[in-house]
Design brief:
α4 crosses α5, α6 (151-166) packs across α9 (220-229) and α7 (181-188) crosses α8. The protein is built from 9 helices and 11 strands. It is α+β, with helices and mostly antiparallel strands.
Length: 230
């Protein structure tokens, strides 16, 4: 990880949560925020670490995961997503790990400045609460999906989620996110062998196309049906 010396640019346009700040608050954020690069494989924070910053991903991809008997990916971040901030508000240590899946740029705002903004700006506080509530809703839905759906439904859900988060290449079908089979399995709460087997079955049925780590969604309607039926 390297700290960047460049100035913060256009942060107010990156996520609407910032645009309710006053001019003086924006100037304070400008002074306090740090811009950092994390190389692929870098751990941004570990479960149990004391929270120090509210973070926003600017470029790259990050996975949020827990380590139990096997790794469980609980969230995949896309540019302009916030993370690391729940523990700042709720107290205690981080309850998950954050790892860069590729080289990333992250904006980091220290705890003191973030908490001060929450306490002094009601509109900003409300937007953070909405963001946190939205994240919680997504996680609740994911928990239900991973516990109640069968293996094909869980993998279909993961593939659709990746397409929704990261979009597609110019061909309109190739998911613009290349994941290892192990990460895809960890995202779907299954072992790697089951992920490979189910992905191959989807390919045989013409629902997806597979070229190394590239996955094409060829029949999104059918994939959505499999996800919905579980």
């Amino acid at each position: 990880m390297q700290k960047e010396s460049i100035r913060l640019l256009n942060v107010w346009e990156l996520n609407p949560i910032w645009d309710v700040l006053t001019k003086s608050e924006k100037e304070e954020v400008q002074r306090q925020i740090e811009i950092k690069r994390y190389d692929k494989g870098s751990i941004i924070h570990r479960e149990g670490d004391t929270p120090t910053h509210m973070r926003m991903l600017v470029s790259g991809k990050i996975k949020i995961y827990k380590e139990n008997l096997r790794q469980q990916i609980i969230r995949m971040l896309k540019p302009y997503d916030f993370f690391s901030y729940r523990a700042l508000v709720g107290g205690g240590g981080y309850n998950s790990n954050a790892e860069a899946l590729e080289r990333c740029i992250v904006y980091e705002l220290n705890k003191a400045c973030f908490i001060k903004l929450l306490q002094s700006n009601n509109a900003f506080c409300f937007r953070v609460m909405k963001n946190m509530a939205s994240d919680l809703g997504v996680q609740e839905a994911k928990t239900v999906n991973l516990t109640q759906k069968h293996i094909p439904g869980r993998l279909a859900e993961a593939l659709l989620s990746l397409k929704h988060n990261y979009g597609t290449d110019e061909d309109g079908v190739t998911i613009a996110m290349y994941m290892s089979r192990e990460d895809l399995a960890n995202m779907s709460n299954m072992n790697t062998a089951n992920a490979i087997r189910t992905l191959s079955l989807f390919a045989q049925e013409g629902i997806v196309g597979v070229d190394g780590r590239k996955i094409k969604i060829l029949d999104e309607e059918e994939l959505t049906k499999i996800s919905r039926l579980g």
